[in-house]
Amino acid sequence: MGERTSRLSRRRAMTLAGTGVAGAVGAAALGGSRSWDRPGTEDHAAAAVPFHGEHQAGITTPAQDRLHFVAFDVITKDRARLVALLQDWSAAAARMTAGRDAGELGAVGGVPQAPPDDTGEALGLPPSQLTLTIGFGPSLFRDAHGRDRFGLADRRPAALAALPRFPGDALRPEISGGDLCVQACANDPQVAVHAIRNLARLGMGVVSVRWSQLGFGRTSSTSRDQATPRNLFGFKDGTANVKAEDDDLAEQLWVQPGDGPEWMTGGSYLVTRKIRMVVETWDRTSLGEQEALIGRTKGSGAPLGRGDEFDELDLELTGPDGEPAIAEQAHVRLAHPSQHNGARLLRRGYNFVDGSDGLGRLDAGLFFIAYQRDPRRQFVPIQTQLARHDLLNEYLRYISSGLFACPPGVRDGADHWGRTLFG
Amino acid sequence: MGERTSRLSRRRAMTLAGTGVAGAVGAAALGGSRSWDRPGTEDHAAAAVPFHGEHQAGITTPAQDRLHFVAFDVITKDRARLVALLQDWSAAAARMTAGRDAGELGAVGGVPQAPPDDTGEALGLPPSQLTLTIGFGPSLFRDAHGRDRFGLADRRPAALAALPRFPGDALRPEISGGDLCVQACANDPQVAVHAIRNLARLGMGVVSVRWSQLGFGRTSSTSRDQATPRNLFGFKDGTANVKAEDDDLAEQLWVQPGDGPEWMTGGSYLVTRKIRMVVETWDRTSLGEQEALIGRTKGSGAPLGRGDEFDELDLELTGPDGEPAIAEQAHVRLAHPSQHNGARLLRRGYNFVDGSDGLGRLDAGLFFIAYQRDPRRQFVPIQTQLARHDLLNEYLRYISSGLFACPPGVRDGADHWGRTLFG
């Protein structure tokens, strides 16, 4: 669905919503199309991303600016209700990603005696490249008490094994895990929040919000057309990320036939980690030490000893003092594919600031998001190495962790997020 | 300072920051100018707002999309150190609002042996209409223990009297009040967060972050050129707001000579209130009831009984049933200037979502911000009426409150935020 069509749809929904005064509503009030006045509403950032396809959107989609991520606990024991919700969610997701309201009767209901079919705060806003991506957590297959609530235990992929405990983890269970997750990414946070809120509303009695996280600045590029953004250490992040245009997506990103249960073919595994950054300590560290810890220059992002951001790391290079240009424990060396049998990740994390910590410091950091074909040979070995040796750990606190199996894409309006898993 | 000049300044800072490889850094890496790829970087939303002027920017400035608000406790007892910080902050604020880095030596330091003069995460981003607005809290003049730490007790305006306790307040002291506040507004949250973080960094040992709040979607317009945005109840908010073009700003917004101590002339009083919205309950309320509680239609924002958003309320109008079109306890009637001797507020609040509440619900709502000439005859009587009678209170929880005296503008580079108060 094109952007113009979907914007018209939201406008039409608004006229349906009047309570007898629709005829008198001025065109000016309807025509605003988004609630602030930045020029360029026809631009790429405001457009729609197709919801249907071979793979779920929101993985190789060029990383949008904003995130609202939510993990749900399933609170029903009724498998049929859960499947029905996944159907309803898929229909609502298709509507909202096209810039339409979540419901069927017009954006704010149309029926004065009934609750609105949509909460309304995104009325008049364009699609803003909204993507909604679902994942299934290990506890959906067998919960913490060993119960197989939905008859899914034998469908659990081996790749969805619980992550090991890494050295230094200080995970808070109440903001970790979850039976289901939905990643909402958009260029307008109001649009991302609206989508998650309406999915939660539709899920009332079936699911309950376990935790949620807002992110405000992407920290990776997932397309060669995007410039590399900076994380809260002030460094470019994601220069060497897996990108949509790469030729090894089958090897690194998408689950292949024979990898495990067939229902995950075309899907991908998602790891989330909420990483508090002790930015006040970092800010007192010298520029030279910051660059040595990362292994790149802060200004350009070039690997130490090289001149351009996108130059390959030269791990053999030594400086005039005979020492390696990139230190043995530099972050980029420890994480480099050459250290992990070529394993790479598609990262699409976001910065966060959650207020302050009560100790005079900002509660800020990185909400890390990584997609991959198999965490057992990608995230787990890479993170094991980093957790053991990365000197950056002095400035980091790992406080939340999540692992989810994201099924393949929803093919069309008759398909839904739960089809391949629930059959 | 124009946008182009300031962007060039940030670029120049980047070249200063290289560690010997500046010459090899490609023009492409430098020229990105912002870290994502939305077209229109030359547009209005990316431009600079002048920092110097008669009044502080960030009050009548057309409300930007994003907020990072911070309250500080002053931890030094040394008045001279506090004044020196206000001078340093003013210089850094002038630089950052112009799109430059916070320090003097180039954006990320220039000296490998020293900590960078700027934390770096806004490198390459345009000014994004950043404004920084300072306020002084009652506790700066006399603290909770009755101490006059900085010899300011006799300069405290009567209008800066502590707010009364309103019915229903459930304030959390640790996220209320503060000796100082800084409101950072910008169209890019990375720019707003960067500014607050660098002010906090400069204040190390003098001030400590007491609380901070991110906001993601403005909930008022402060200029007739802006469309009215929607709050998380899904309603347009701020239709009848005080706007920059109004002819009663001297009456409603700016402190006038003779109002109180001369140091506040040209300033304004700021009230903040963090209002949790119980959106899950609201979302189960019928459209008709929602509209009756607010007193406006949800779709167009028109007052009930009228046709257009900007039509005046008709408080006398009755419907076919003989009942008032706008109920006696409707929010818009209770807050209307006719009920409060003409008092109005300039609101520029933001939506927030702070994750979830541990009970399966989003922790979401409105961070209310209002500027005014005198809270004693504006915010206090209006809020007293609302706290007593507004049926919306069923869906609201007031969890934080702040009151600050915002001095007049910084006139030029030799002036600073503390001049009128500290003399």
UniProtKB/TrEMBL annotation, chains A, B:
Instruction: Tell me which cofactor or cofactors this protein depends on.
Output: heme b
| Major localization class | other
Dyp-type peroxidase C-terminal domain spans which residues? 228-410
The role this protein plays is:
Involved in the recovery of exogenous heme iron. Extracts iron from heme while preserving the protoporphyrin ring intact.
What is the official name of this protein in its record?
Deferrochelatase
A single Gene Ontology biological process assigned to it is: iron import into cell
Q: Which organism is it from?
A: Plantactinospora soyae
What's the family? Belongs to the DyP-type peroxidase family.
Q: Name one Pfam family in it.
A: Dyp_perox_C
- List GO molecular-function terms, semicolon-separated: ferrochelatase activity; heme binding; metal ion binding; peroxidase activity
- Keywords linked to the UniProt accession: Heme, Iron, Lyase, Metal-binding, Oxidoreductase, Peroxidase, Signal
Protein's cellular compartments: Cell envelope
Which reaction(s) does the protein catalyse, per the Swiss-Prot or TrEMBL entry?
A: heme b + 2 H(+) = protoporphyrin IX + Fe(2+)
SUPFAM superfamilies xref list: Dimeric alpha+beta barrel (SSF54909)
Q: Per the record, what is one GO cellular component?
A: cell envelope
Q: What is its EC number?
A: 1.11.1.-
Q: Which parts of the sequence belong to the Dyp-type peroxidase N-terminal domain?
A: 56-216
* Note on cofactor: Binds 1 heme b (iron(II)-protoporphyrin IX) group non-covalently per subunit.
| Domain of life per record | Bacteria
* Record-linked PANTHER family: DEFERROCHELATASE, DEFERROCHELATASE/PEROXIDASE
